[in-house]
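Appendix C reproduces, verbatim, an entry submitted by the partner laboratory led by Prof. M.T., so that reviewers can inspect both the input and the predicted structure.
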Amino acid sequence: MMVKLMFIAAALFVLGGCVSNQAVQTVQPGDFDKSCKALQYELTQMGAKFDEVKDDSGFTGKNVGLALVFWPGVIVNEVRSNKNQDSVSDRVNHLSNLYQQKCMKDDGDDS
């Protein structure tokens, strides 16, 4: 019974320590209808999101804990973290292109 309980606790620890899927869809509905201010706001939000997902990569407490208990979990965490970073970066590029096309042409008009 004690071994079973320890196995369950270890499994919960490993699963709880994994990086969550924070991937962002590159093109979202309504992107092309956003105003310049809305695009600026979302770019700011994506910058903060990128910093957040970047913090899940590298030498983190999650990875150290996983290395002690389940070393392949470190690889899974790094792969997931890289996918999250790539998706946020792609979204930022998409929004930046939209902003340049829409707001730089109009000299900053809020159209």
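The mean pLDDT is 77. Additional entries are available on request from the coordinating office.
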